[in-house]
Amino acid sequence: MTDNDPLEQIYVRTEQVEGVQRALLAQLILPFAGVNPETGEVYFKAIADELLNTKQKILVYLLCRLALASKQDTSFSKYVSPKEVEVATHLPGGTVRPKLSQLVTEDRVVVKSGEGYVVPASYLNQIRTKKLLPIE
Predict the structure, then answer these.
(1) What is the pTM of this model?
(2) Helices 20-29, 54-70: inter-axial angle, 10-degree rounding
């Protein structure tokens, strides 16, 4: 293909979080957690323990990782293993793995063989419109 091919504009190597999606991602995360951009550590706010069930807490963690990976000049991956979710959320592995499977079955999360679990940016509006998190 040549550089003048108009289709070149539509090709992307990875799904990107841009514009309105960035604002929506922040709205979904901010009530419940914060992220250290240098270490990648996710900090859950006290209200998260009061308002979120286990699946919702896992979902918020995955959203945090998507946000972290969307930051320019980052080495953090948006894909996470069940062990990473377990450690970050302080939930037992016997709880995390079945909940991740449920989120995949419910089409809330995608699992990519060899890479891990991720919330695709294209799912953000669905998370908001279906009120999967207790936000206004």
Answers:
(1) 0.87
(2) 140
